[in-house]
Amino acid sequence: MVDIATRVYNHRWKMDPIVRSLIDTDFYKLLMCQSVFRKRPDTTVTFSLINRSRSIRIADLIDEGELREQLDHIRTLSLSRGESTWLRGNMFYGKRQMFTPEFMEWFEALRLPPYHLETRDGQYELTFEGKWPEVMMWEIPALAVLMELRARAALGSMKKFELQVLYARAMTKLWEKVERLRPIGALRIADFGTRRRHSFLWQDWCVQAMREGLGDRFVGTSNCLIAKNRDLEAIGTNAHELPMVYAALAENDEALARAPYDVLSDWHEEHDGNLRIILPDTYGTKGFLENAPDWLAGWTGIRIDSGLPEEGAEIAIDWWTSRGEDPRQKMVIFSDGLDVDRIVSLHKRFSGRVRTSFGWGTLLTNDFRGLTPDDALAPFSLVCKAVAANGRPTVKLSDNPRKAMGPRDEIARYKRVFGVGEQEEVEVVV
Amino acid sequence: MVDIATRVYNHRWKMDPIVRSLIDTDFYKLLMCQSVFRKRPDTTVTFSLINRSRSIRIADLIDEGELREQLDHIRTLSLSRGESTWLRGNMFYGKRQMFTPEFMEWFEALRLPPYHLETRDGQYELTFEGKWPEVMMWEIPALAVLMELRARAALGSMKKFELQVLYARAMTKLWEKVERLRPIGALRIADFGTRRRHSFLWQDWCVQAMREGLGDRFVGTSNCLIAKNRDLEAIGTNAHELPMVYAALAENDEALARAPYDVLSDWHEEHDGNLRIILPDTYGTKGFLENAPDWLAGWTGIRIDSGLPEEGAEIAIDWWTSRGEDPRQKMVIFSDGLDVDRIVSLHKRFSGRVRTSFGWGTLLTNDFRGLTPDDALAPFSLVCKAVAANGRPTVKLSDNPRKAMGPRDEIARYKRVFGVGEQEEVEVVV
């Protein structure tokens, strides 16, 4: 039986919206948003799209009209009653009422602010400017829209069975990864792949397949909508945008040097347990840990998001030991450029020495490498970052100079203030 | 929107019937049936299931009750109006009204006769006895039911995503075969995989994928229902059962020696063009061709269905040449144990020397080898053959002694009458 109503309804759509919910975003965005809403609600920030893979000329691949339609659609979204109920009532990281009534009221009224879009040299210059808590909510949906529109462009010319075989191959590829991870007994792995996913439906498939294939070792997803729909844990803590904006707002070098710790001091007030995860690499992991106050060594763990992950984890272990902490009680979350080989080898090296955990992103939800003849679906390195706060540029150094960003003189100043010397370059795949 | 009616309707089913149409069968069965209906309608025959892969204990894998339900369901089937219209009105092999009004009237009234089922030593002894035109229609549905029930048994314990990945892998596997065949320009290939298919839906998928992937080089399917539903050519000519039954009915050695030619003489009256395809191996290809009357050399082609296919084709080419025919005008249809390697190599060797054509069976529609850990879905060699006619046993020698069947003394007699000496054994995969 054909459901005629469904068919007619589907044919009436003017477009196929990519992002259909304000909580189709990473959980840490909501945690950070609440923190910003409390502490720095009136900061004006600019977020900007940055395509690190310059060879991918996305403006040649994606129609500007379609991109505007998708972004305009996101601006029509507001929190649904069910989504609000879930955020208000669900237990996150073992805690009820993670989000305060004040924040929820603000969130229920939120509509995303305007965007600014121009094309230059085959790239889109997409920027968002306004109050920090509002603008920051653009990051994930903007990236997801660009990634999926680019995928749709590549899929447009494929025939019916060719398409079905493409997804069959992608499923097979993911399942082979699941089968390689399955023998690892004490694995803890989560989906961190919202921003650079192939598509929403594909991410949803990957999450469910991981759940079936790995059982409880798949601990959850960063995507709030999928966590809600699939009854999974929403996963995530905090990101570089907090220290980047705090640092940009610092009035002098002394305040700048303190800024990353101010961020975590604010966080310390708000969160405990598994939410106390240090992200140490914004201005160099080594210096950050050396100069860290003692209370930070008491935090639950650390997230390694740039540089050589083995090195970052060893630095953390040495630091905990030097501060009299037992690394075996600490959590190390790897979240940079992971694929199954690296997960297996990192788990092997650090299992037993620390509690390892993996935030698997792009190569979980967008590994279409090698599945089309011209590799038009291979993922690429697109980010959307805070580039200014109250009119002052932001800077990120990270543990990999290829991930550094900001004006050259400001980078030099930050390097001096944070005592960052020579850094090893690591290729940025995704 | 959930179509509630569909869901309720589906849940009401007592079973999921495997064969749902009397034309879910091979086209050559219908051609042969009409021929038998005309020439030998009152012959009493016995068809019997034979599992050449004795190590597969199908009675341990398939529940007898389920098997009976499926077979009972087939006995309730009759030709639908649309199916009858298609058979009466469609053009087959360039000819309108391939089926006479008399045959169609008989077919419209047909219900399949009773079956006899027993279990012995882990195998089902499934036999059908009665009038030849009726009993012969059991062969293909009986095989399809057993193959699919065995697949269902293996699939029963698989989880949701595991199942989806299984089919993803099978699709990928088939598509890789399509991609290997695609560069071959002058290919002619058809689906002959009904009897040992994984399932009806899977055969239907394979046929459509082949059509999309190979275009006109995929010339059609032996399955009448799929040919009708997908607007493809129905493909097939004649099979061993004709000479086997004719031979069993022969009153003496002289009549026995003549029997295979009598079959083709009757066929010659009824069909021309691409339906005039010799199947020479029932009692040894070499002797059959040596003793063949000259009018047979004028036929369009030959089907190689046992033994080493290269050898069979070379014998045919030599024979045509010796009879003053131009082999380049002749068609050689390979239909035994084909997979893509063999298709590629046979095409390479014989292209230009004859018009090659491929009837691809089990490894098109049931290549699940290696897709489950215990290989519980690998195809096996199940056949359903005429074993007696008017109370006398049938014999098949073929060009491969492993495919021979019949009582030992009768095999010896046939070998003597048809002058069959030493034969090379070829492993029977499927």
Automatic annotation (TrEMBL), chains A, B:
Processing after translation: Transiently phosphorylated on a His residue during the reaction cycle. Phosphorylation strongly increases the affinity for substrates and increases the rate of nicotinate D-ribonucleotide production. Dephosphorylation regenerates the low-affinity form of the enzyme, leading to product release.
Record domain Nicotinate/nicotinamide phosphoribosyltransferase: where: 188-422
Listed GO CC annotations: cytosol
Class of the enzyme per the UniProt entry, highest EC level: ligase
Protein name as catalogued: Nicotinate phosphoribosyltransferase
Chain's gene name: pncB
Task of the protein: Catalyzes the synthesis of beta-nicotinate D-ribonucleotide from nicotinate and 5-phospho-D-ribose 1-phosphate at the expense of ATP.
MF GO annotations: glycosyltransferase activity; nicotinate phosphoribosyltransferase activity
Biological process annotations from GO: NAD+ biosynthetic process via the salvage pathway
Ranges of residues in domain Nicotinate phosphoribosyltransferase N-terminal: 23-146
Recorded catalytic activity of this chain's protein: 5-phospho-alpha-D-ribose 1-diphosphate + nicotinate + ATP + H2O = nicotinate beta-D-ribonucleotide + ADP + phosphate + diphosphate
Family classification: Belongs to the NAPRTase family.
Key words, A-Z: Glycosyltransferase, Ligase, Phosphoprotein, Pyridine nucleotide biosynthesis, Transferase
Annotated positions of the Phosphohistidine modification: H240
Organism: Roseovarius azorensis
Pathway annotation from the record: Cofactor biosynthesis; NAD(+) biosynthesis; nicotinate D-ribonucleotide from nicotinate: step 1/1
Enzyme Commission number(s) from the entry: 6.3.4.21
UniProt xrefs under InterPro entries: N/Namide_PRibTrfase, NAPRTase_N, Nic_PRibTrfase, Nic_PRibTrfase-Fam, Nicotinate_pribotase-like_C
